[in-house]
Amino acid sequence: MVTRNADRLEGTGMTTGPLTRLLLAASLGVAALTFPAAAQDKLTILDWPGYEAPALHPDYTARHGEPNFTFFADEDEAFEKLRAGFKADLSHPCATNVVKWRDAGLLQPLDTARIAAWNDIVPGIRGIDNLMTDKDGKAWFLPFDWGNTLVTYRTDKVQPADIPSLKVLADPAFKGRISIPDNVDAAYALGLLAVGVKDVQTVTEEQFQAASAFLREVHKNVRLYWTDNTQLGQALAGGEVDVAWAWNETANALKGQGVPVAVKKDTAEGIASWVCGYVHLKDGPGDVDAVYDFLNAVTAPAVSTYMVTAWGYGHANGAGMAAIDKTALEAAGHTNFEETMKTSLFAAPIDPAMKQKFVAEFEKIKSGY
User: Fold this and answer.
1) Given 3.30.70.1230, 3.30.450.40, 3.40.190.10, 3.40.50.1820, which CATH number is that of 40-146+274-339?
2) Relative orientation angle of helices 18-34 and 2-10, to the nearest 10 degrees
């Protein structure tokens, strides 16, 4: 900051001898002491790529400008980064990881009195055990977005009848034509569904082993483990892969570009669903008032329509979702969150020990072991 201000002074033509520089440094020091809050007003947010879109937090932008975003490929990467000492104010984990992050001491509780939409969160999400609040009623997680992980395919190369079951992804006929996420939660959602699991919170050792064995077979067909929707979208659009295990956003974006893709919701085993949201990180450097301005901005009902129509995801604000045109909701497949939970494998909070088994095994699978 001193360098930038000094350059600006020199650009005016004023002399910058030793005395001037001394006075300048002194004045800047006084400014830093006098206005500490201004330097903290810009939040640092550790997030998924793409969520920096200003349309997802317009009220915050109008008041503060854009926050500083830094990105992660999956929540386990973010978890390790935070444990290593990276400082941020907010982050964006999903339901399966909230307990793990909380138990690791990475989070601080939320003041729900400062969150305007807290009581408007979709009832089905509010009812998930140990998610928004712990057993003592202390709040830790503000839901933001929800959606599905499901088969997405090129309609000019694959017919719906070719994918009656998720087990097809392990068929040698699809060798080199498959892409699945480089994301342990999404990958194991596929594996668990394929072996008949309906509740991620009650996975047995036998089911874990069966899901892992299935993912090893899928690995033989994988052309690409995708890390973000842009990478996967390019692979599908360019013909590098024909079938993917993907989030709603991928098909939504590609259809808008005229790429012939569709999603397959009626495989024999069904689809997976998830909910993600924001957490207040412990010892974040930003201003607390700005933190709550951001949380209120992302959960404002005005964001719901953009989330559904531009991203293909559901928004956590039930009042905002209720105001969206029914045709748009039906097109996105998000008319009823409770029904989504009943008819899919839902990524609810899981035991951190089981999650760690998923992480370790998935690394072996991707390496060919």
Assistant:
1) 3.40.190.10
2) 130
